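Repro:
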Amino acid sequence: MRRSLLTRGQAYEGIDFNLSHSGNQVAVAVARGLRVGIDIERVIERDNTHDLASRVFSAAERELLMCTSTAGYLARWYQIWTTREAYVKAQGTGLSGIAAELPDPGTSWLAHAVRGVAQGYAATVVAYRKDCRRAG
């Protein structure tokens, strides 16, 4: 869910918030002067993690998964997924943009794993500023 206290054509200085829910958990992110996205997911075994990773994740993300132990694979997969979903929510493109190549973190966006999330869940929040310019 996206809400912005801003009228069309204004510079982005308003308050933005985003919601996500999974299972019996809800996550909310609020920011001023930035777009914000959040995603929370219940970490459950899925039959299609490898297929989704091959279609959605970048080559570097897939390589990171391949280097992850079997025990840590699912947690890493959800870390990548929640980051991608929070990013597209902050950007405002919706899930249709989830497979797009992401710019390097720190250029126009930052992601943080949410600490203190309920056991068995993964959550990431992304702050996005469209008007940032790459240094260099």
